[in-house]
Please model this.
Amino acid sequence: MSLTQISSSVDDDAKPGLFEQARLRAGHIAIPLGTAVSLLLIWQIGVRLFEVPTYIAPAPTDVLAVFANDAALLLRNFWPTLIESLSGFVVGNLAAILIAVAFVHSRTVEKAFFPIAVFINTIPILAIAPILVLIFGAGMTAKVVIAALICFFPTLVNMVRGLQSVSPQTLELARILSASKSEIFWKIRLPSSLPFLFSALKIAATTCVIGAIVGEWIGADVGLGALIIDSTFNFRSPLLYATVFVSSGLSVLLFTAVSVAERLVVRW
Amino acid sequence: MSVQPLADFADDSPDQEPAGRKVAARLSGASVKFGRFTALENISLEIGEGEFWTILGPSGCGKSTMLRLVSDLVPAAEGDVTILDKSTEAARLAREFAFVFQDATLLPWRSALKNVELPLEMGRKRGLQIPASDRSPQELLELVGLKGRENALPHELSGGMRQRVAIARALVCKPKLLLMDEPFGALDEMKRDLLNLQLREIWQETGVTILFVTHSISEAVFLGQKVLMLRANPGRVKDVVDIDLPAHREVALRETPEFNRYCGKLRQLLEEC
Model:
């Protein structure tokens, strides 16, 4: 909502405020951008000045050259990771949401399965990834499962809290209105849980990429994770750095998408 | 004394129907217990249709519990409660009463108008016949002075405005009985005065019966036709005081000697509790 409020206030007094607003906004972008450019410059000068070999630490211009020359290679490995991350995001969060609903619906289900959920969450993802690759093979499935697994727990915990976040007084209101259980769920509990759900989805948006890449390390011939392993062993450091930037770019993309969705859905 | 003889309530106060009036709510020897703790004991009352009652008493005397008892949120351990000669459950299913909480208890993702419409949507799955007021939700928002703010979300409204939305929501099913649990307790004095005046107007326009819990003596006298004084441990009826003041009330009424005489009397009763 804050966004719509700000934009409407811009409309209200557009004439005097517009220039000021633009300057402020430019400052918000210019300051961090300037810092980043300066750091890259220091990096460039440092590498050249001390004659660091490219395979140990490539200069930013070397990495840029990879983006120009090997764009097709990067893109070919970008799509599989994107698909795995997104599928894992959807599967993991959907499972977490449904199980959270079951937990809130029945204390017995929660008692039976919550300890198992905690146990699965305590296994390091690097330890469980080889097992999943053995079970599901070298195809995409194992990566999707790993990505889903890594999203699952934070969403489960947040969603349970969200569904339980309804105030006792609101539940009394529902009782006075003789609301049915399904009406309470759809009209009160589910909307109440949305702010909690979105904070979990923001976490999941970045961790699902980690899951997919870890899966690709174990066994894959395409994907950003495979490219990271490949370029490391072949001392193609500029390509390695470029792949790392693309991976983090993918996380930023997914995170931004979730943030935009949150702003559209949670307006209160 | 603990129980007012029922016959006394037939006494006519100025703005009340004469003999032959209907009873909106009747409590006969009702008690409420929470485990071993007795919150209310042996309450017998008759609240006539269209009357405005305010409930006063020391903290912990069961004022809120009494509203909860009438609204079927807590069961009676002993005795009986009826609303328009129905059980409280039947009255709840028929939407004979509505509740206004101390918090507005609005759904934050719904606009003011959508919040007012909520009672019309709830209970449909059970196949309830949901009565609707002759006034549309828009007109009810207008009645409480929120014309033009229909699409505002609760967080865009002030505390007083939110409480007015809650009052409009309470009226949307045309209740015969309005239960209000310190609805203006969290507001500053200016807003409270304004809302008190508005509530009197709404009461006179709609003819709804009101049970209003407060811990402000002057609010109790200003609003009520009758003040029910409860005493604590266990909660019992201490006294019922008729407020014999003109039907049309203005803020200036608070400066009059009659008004202050009632306040003094109630303060004395409260001290005896």
Q: What stands out?
A: The first helix of chain A runs from residue 2 to 12. The interface with chain B takes residues 1, 167, 169-170, 172-180, 182-183, 187-188, 191, 194, 266-268 of chain A (CB under 8 Å). Residues 1-14 of chain A have pLDDT under 50 and may be disordered.
